[in-house]
Amino acid sequence: MDRFVDLAVSAVLLAGLYATMAYGLGLIYGVLRVVNLAHGGVIMAGAYLGWILHGWAGLDPYLSIPLVVGATFLLGMAMYRVLVRHLPRGPAGGPASLLLLFGVWLVLRNVAYLLFTGNDQVIRTSYSTHALPLLGSFVSVNRLAVLAIAVVTPALLHLVLRRTYLGRAIRAVAQNADSCTLVGIDVERIYTLTFGIGTALAGLAGLLSATIFSFNPGFGSGELLKSFVVVVLGGLGSVFGTGVAALILAIVEVFAILVMPSYLTAAVGFVMLVLVLVLRPGGLFGQRVLG
Amino acid sequence: MTGAPMLEVDGIDVFYGDVQVLYGLSLEVREGEIVTLLGSNGAGKTTTLRAISGLRPPRKGEIRFRGRSLASLPAARRAELGIALVPEGRELWPQLTVRENLDLGAYHPRVRANAARNLETVLAMFPRLRERSSQVAGSLSGGEQQMCAIARALMSEPTFLMLDEPSLGLAPVLVEQVMRTVAELHASGITVLLVEQNLRKALEVAQRGTVIETGRVRLEGTSAELSRNPEIRAAYLGI
């Protein structure tokens, strides 16, 4: 029973992280119809940014959130303005943007190897080893903080998308860009901002991951694939769908440990991905786009 | 009641990729007029409206609005000038609510502060939309969607309104209603350019008409002249 509670708690904590990174990928795909293969690279970059700020400037990873989010937001906007903007979109443009963004990822990764070598790093803080008793088991304070941020971030995003002119414009562009132009929405500006927001979410997810896991320049590939699983599972409909899908993936992965050797649990997500694509290609919650 | 030229389309060539759709097309709409653009499917009516709204800029020729060339003005800035288009097929944002669709109609800076007032005006005009305001636009009937599309365009306080086949796919009673709405909007002072398949109805509400054929102007005249024209009667009115 204790074991069960332990696993359930770690599944919930993991789900928050998955939801944060998946939402960035889903938002960019939903609005621009571009699969951002550089997502994994930005997750890695977010981890290293936090590590640099912590190691060199002594900045607590939680205090560095605005800096890391701001930097990756700018990085995302630059990636859109300089590269993605010039590519064809939609089904016809698929291969071009996949290759280009995969290239961006390779560049990011190799720059990281050059700067930081391939050694594993961690962000270790004074509270890294603190734990609180919860439901009869112990939960790391840090993981709780990560969960809190992973819950607050999508909630904020949801509010922005629902309540502000900018958010409504982002959703409208995802559904019909020409009509947006007609009412005076600068569609290119919305694409730029959306790419920035999606990329910043990846940066945030990377930073939060770095407080829990060790990482190296190859970090991010597993995270990208998990983001895919969550996006496919949850569809592009809502923040809520993404959260539920992240929870499902995390629960399945965590509980898989009970029935199979741990080196196989990483494959569980891909099995789910294939099953969902075969059985419910529109995702578990239908095909609405940012409705 | 008509004044200075409001819209001047001057010899425009428009392409889709390598395919030329408009050939040196010219058109004029004067302040306060209601003009209809007629022609069969594929003649280039929709393309003409897309060129004016900036979605499909001409490769040659010029479009002027109140004497000012639109060539260097991006499409997204044209709503600010008072130009609005109700596109063919409504083109609403199907998963946003009616209310959100309307609110976004008042997106550009000149009118955003008036959004609440404009919303009241359009909801008073289309009471049906008030009942439906929290429903997603995709769930509306065809007639309601058309009202929503017109209302969204009105939210931007246009002085020049283009409507692309607003009666398409509507039941006859709704066609009447849409045409009455168009006439009312014109009476309220909005200059209108109407593209319509239903030529009889279009000539009823319009003062002048231009007939285009394979991207070129074929005939021009007042509605009365066009209704009498034997060619038109044979080709479009089936008389």
How do the helices and strands line up, and which of them pair or pack?
The complex is a heterodimer of chains A (291) and B (239).
Chain A: H1 2-32, H2 39-57, H3 65-82, H4 90-116, E1 131-134, E2 137-140, H5 141-163, H6 165-175, H7 177-182, H8 187-210, H9 221-234, H10 239-256, H11 265-279
Antiparallel strand pairs in A: 1-2
Chain B: E1 5-16, E2 19-30, E3 34-38, H1 45-53, E4 60-65, E5 68-69, H2 78-81, E6 83-86, H3 98-105, H4 109-112, H5 115-125, H6 127-131, H7 142-154, E7 160-164, H8 172-187, E8 191-195, H9 199-205, E9 208-213, E10 216-222, H10 223-228, H11 230-237
Parallel strand pairs in B: 3-8, 3-9, 6-7, 7-8
Antiparallel strand pairs in B: 1-2, 1-4, 4-5, 9-10
Helix pairs in contact in B: 3-7
Largest sheet of chain A: 2 strands, antiparallel
Q: Give the SSE order of chain B as H and E letters.
A: EEEHEEHEHHHHHEHEHEEHH
Q: Mean of the pLDDT scores of chain A?
A: 89
- Large-scale geometry of chain A: globular
In terms of DSSP E residues, the strand content of chain B is 25-35%
Give a count of the beta strands of chain B, DSSP E runs of length 2 or more. Answer: 10
Q: How many strands in all of chain A?
A: 2
Low-confidence stretches of chain B: none
Could you tell me how far the N terminus lies from the C terminus of chain A, measured between alpha carbons in angstroms?
A: 40 Å
Largest sheet, spatial ordering of strands of chain A:
1-2
Net shape of chain B: globular
The largest sheet of chain B has its strands arranged as 6-7-8-3-9-10
Give me the Rg of chain B, rounded.
Answer: 17 Å
What is the straight-line distance between the termini of chain B?
Answer: 32 Å
